[in-house]
Records
---
Amino acid sequence: MFFEKELLSFNILDVLELKQRDVNMFNSGRNFNALSFRFRSDAVLTTKAERHYMKDNYVSYFPARLDYTRVATVDEMIVVHFDTISYNTKSIEYFLPGDHAVLSGLFREIFDSWSKKELGYKYKCSAILCEIFAECYKQNYVSKAQNSKIQSSVDYLLKSYKKSDLSIKEIADKSFMSEVYFRKLFKEEYGISPQKYIINLRIQNAIGLISTGYYSLKEVAYMSGYNDYKYFSVEFKRSTGVSPSEYLYNYIEKG
């Protein structure tokens, strides 16, 4: 989900408070993402593929360029509109927080700061949005078993993912098991293949390096585990939706 990205690059466009009744709206092709906290809601959201039922205290994420219909007798929320290329999905994502008071407070805080527009408010709002992401992650985190059979391999992977010649067999060897068995256990525990996990780590590392403005794109590729810049560019675009140069131009230089 949206809050699971270690480095979610974003640019806040607006923060709104909506208190609506008898809503029947079609949202089409919005070029920004939206994150909302619903204080009161019975909204039904319908896309071509899915139907979602909102309730009080739901946190919801809406990706850019998603067409959907929103129908509700009551829909009261605070919503943050923002740009990002660090996360791609075509579905609405949402959850009911276990401790909704913390998140409702953060959403009220970001709306209040955005509305007052005091000196440095965009920095403050960006910090609050990061707090929101962190709280969403915290409330959804499921800890991994400490006695995991693959823990030694995972620890090695996290230390070594920037090695260009890192292999899954090399990682599996750290837990004294076959590559096939390691892939099976890793997928069961993390939900994705170890190779995809490594790619995600490398691309997130690359985003962080590009964001500093200190390195050329070829240097970033090398420092993230890629000896071949063309291959790095392909992986970067597959993960983010844009090439490294497009990311640099649109999200760093145009800042």
---
Amino acid sequence: MNTKEKDSKYIMHTYGRYNVALKSGKGAAAFDEDGKRYIDVSSGIGVNSLGYCDEGWVNAITAQANTVQHVSNYFYNEQPSNLAEKLCTLTGLSKACFGNSGAEANECAIKVARKYSFDRYGEGRNVILTLKNSFHGRTVTTLSATGQDVFHNFFFPFTEGFKYAEANNLDDVKNNIDEKVCAVMIEVVQGEGGVVILDKEFVQGVARICKASDILLIIDEVQTGIGRTGKLFAYQHYGVKPDLVTMAKGLGGGLPIGVCLCGEKLDSVMSPSTHGTTFGANPVVCAGANYVIDKISDEAFLNAVEEKGAYLEKKLLALDEVKSVNRLGLMVGIEIDGDAHDMAEKCVANGLLIITAKALLRMLPPLTITAEELDEAVTILEKTLKENTK
């Protein structure tokens, strides 16, 4: 059996696969088992932030794997300690908690928020307000936090304690705030929701409401963080300082990681046994993340991300078949006529690895992608769109 046949026979069908089996990659280029080359503007859904097999990243994780590959969280290790220091210093936040995914990071934030409120106000103040059209993960609790009805099925009973307000509607947020709400959790760009960029006035208004009532502001940066939007974190575009920030995807550069950062007033909320995970703070993963954060946090690197994003947007808007573009940095949603998923499959057949978000095509290219590779991606997209509008 070949790779696709084995996958079909032995792996649960929880993903709608594209018809390609990838074998290797370098930078923004990927190669399938037959040697066919693709330009990848999905980067593993924003995970391969430095592209495939960045030399420095490979060296960092290899060196750590040759030193010690795993350490129980009962013991100290320099890699997570160094990473936590960098993240806290760069954000002005206070403490980090390590996990293995964005959903885990969000679970941690939810637990911190509820425990803070329990410790300070007692039982009953445990509701978390999220936004309609949001996406916060696929565990039972983070599915419940997700503000999309399509995800609230099959897996009953879902975790209680979540309400949903309209994005960019401050009045609706106010109307949903009561004495039971302990936190508001938002993505400043709703990635899975269709690359919806929240208004600055709305985000700042939510922050004011939270501050006035000691309601914690959680910002989910799982997809938007680690340079994706041209800032280290997307909330930095908005002039707010959250109480909790979650991240994953691009931080690991290709290895699984999730981190929840908290501000100073929360830094003693969690104590031994209140949270944990076997593989959180894995030294090899953190070695890769240390390399990623050192490279991406450079101001010149972040400026280049925005420049590449603006260049890509201009090229996309020049295509007759593109109706509009939603963009912040290199987080891009493309509105076209026709079915986006169908078009994405046809792009893949033509050598462009692209994904979707709701009714849009979505690009999350490696932050290291070159102008020439962006040109190649747009050329393939244009070719595919023209083939299907004849």
---
Amino acid sequence: MITRILYHDRDLLLCRKPAGMPSQPDASGQPDLLTFLQSTHPTASLVHRLDTPTGGVMVFGLTPKATARLCAMVQDHETFRKEYFAVLSHPLSEETGEMRDFLYHDKMLNKSFVTDGKRKGSKEAVLSYRTLAADEQGHSLVSVRLHTGRTHQIRVQFASRGYPLVGDGKYGNREKCPHIGLWAYSLAFPHPITGKPISVETLPDTNIYPWHLFDF
């Protein structure tokens, strides 16, 4: 697994999290990104997370002030913009659109479910998407922008409509894949101290499935 620093200054750093690596220490005992970064940047602090199977760009604070401001910024999805690539098992009926649901996360199962919004603990989830490409087998490459940040949001919202992500057995896909077809490719936000725009993109490993199916 390859981790790369994509941007670094005295207040923060952005890096590429490999798919399959936890964002922080967890019960699995696997090497995690936060511990790895702290070996060279002892003050690195977690600001947000990516699911273990999901790779892509993450930001970490390096000072208490920057970390606190970044943590607050993460809650505003118009200011803290996250975009993903997702590979679906078959084409969407609409090439572009918005998905809006209420989701409930069952912590015991570590799984999210679409609800009618009346269940206690349900939270609104909103994303927008556009189809970028399709291969001969019918897989679709989709760009997704999150407008809220719910647990497994992209995975459950697409799966609930009959479009599970490739390799995502938790949400109904049975296609064998070393990692799910989900990658956080873009992160943009104002610098927490200077206010200057920060924008970083990173691509998945296009030599492995399912990313090798498409031209980036």
---
Amino acid sequence: MYDLAVTGGTVVDPAQRLNERMDVAITGGSVSEVAPRLDAGRAARAIDATGMVVCPGLVDLHVHIYEGVSHYGINADEHVLRSGVTTAVDAGSAGASTFSGLRRYVIDVSDTRLFAFLNISGMGMISESVGELEEIRWADPAAAIKVCEANRDLILGIKIRISRKLAGPNVAPALRNAREAADATGLPVMVHPNDAQDFSLDDVLAYLKAGDIVTHCFHGMAGGILTSDGHVRESVRRAVDNGVLLDVGHGQGSFDFDVAERAMAEGVVPHTISSDLHVYNLHGPVFDLATTVSKFLLLGLDLPDALRRCTASPAEVMGMKGQIGTLAPGAAGDLTILRIEETPYAFVDSYGKERRGELRLVPATVIKAGKEVPAVVRG
């Protein structure tokens, strides 16, 4: 007997190179079988996914879910899980001084599978009016190392934001401290590089190593991925060749259609597609990860390639290849059932620029560890 059978859908599992009509069975919270035809009568519950896409539960490498503490925070279960994301990573909402609360009051009690990048600033992303690195004493590598070592099961890396309003003149020492904490723990750095004071992206990339992540890779502010004449920086190409990863991190102000289009036309494609979902973009322009992925379909990625960048690829970045982000037998019983809406839709980037598309992915049903979660649609 199966606990759940999902039948009739088109299974798109890039980790297994599947893109065909298949049935999926879940037993004991894990995927138990994927086959062209399964006997739904053997399942305690069956879901008919005919006409829809069945993919691994989406993985969002960049969200902000420290509700009630960070000014960015949203409720993970209400706004992340119900929008089709079964695994998410909080990208720096908490630092060494505030992480214990994120763990106890959010991560440990949420149905969403949650992890975190620890902010090199001990305060994390608390205040809308005070940058977390305006006072460099907050960037304490020893404190960050201690918290990372005590929370190895949840902390995946060190996050640093270096925009001028967040770090002011402290970019270089903050990057050095983030590098020190990452090297001491063997974890990667995720850097938010937008509009750093007196620092170009070339300067930032000099601090990064293989496995580090540049999020907001297609932002339209100063110090971006493109040179002044609109071509991809050579430093970016070298960094990618050396193993530095590019992450979308759409966000309220960090995704520009034109920048993405130009970079992708020159062969620079993000390793992971993430939403940077938080309270200020929940009702637009982001809405959810599925809408962000839809924008990359509009930009020319095919469906399996786009879904790989929010399933198998982030799972690998997280060190969880084969456990999440796939429907291989034995993997977590997480599925996202997507409806493909083939009607005109106005997609908007972070700068208000609109592009009309004919195809949008919409979460229809979410399965987390074999249990159905009501989906929510925004936008």
